[in-house]
């Protein structure tokens, strides 16, 4: 949301400048919103049409999944969770027990 700005306009050049800056602020807000909406998403080939944007070559409407662009934005898969080796888990448990014993 834009805050209230008081602007003094005396000349046409100033008016043009004020107009540009107000549209600039709006466009900037749009860009910021888009950044937060799409940050971290990957532009990948649409799997429904395989990037062509249409389903076949018989004059069908554009692909419903990607809207005819052939690309969709998707979050990339998160890396697999790696579990420590059971021996490492055992070693940590033993170390914890020893530390607790030493504290007593
Ligand atoms: Zn598609």
Please explain how this structure is put together.
The protein is mainly alpha-helical and 104 residues long. Among the domains are: 9-39; 40-77, no CATH class. The protein is 43% helix and 8% strand. The protein has helices at residues 12-38, 86-103; strands at 42-45, 71-74. Strands 1-2 form a two-stranded antiparallel ribbon. The longest helix has 27 residues, at 12-38. The protein is flat, with a radius of gyration of 29 Å. The chain starts with 11 loop residues before the first helix and ends with a helix. Zinc ion (ZN) binds at residues 46, 48-49, 53, 63, 65-66, 70.
Low-confidence stretches: none
Radius of gyration: 29 Å
Oligomer: single chain
Whole-number average pLDDT?
87
Number of strands: 2
Structural class determined from secondary elements: mainly alpha
By DSSP (H or I, 4+ residues per run), the number of helices equals: 2
Shape: flat
Blueprint (SSEs and pairs):
Blueprint (H helix, E strand, L loop, with lengths): L11 H27 L3 E4 L25 E4 L11 H18 L1
Antiparallel strand pairs: 1-2
In brief:
Helix content is 43%, strand content 8%. With 104 residues, the protein is mainly alpha-helical.
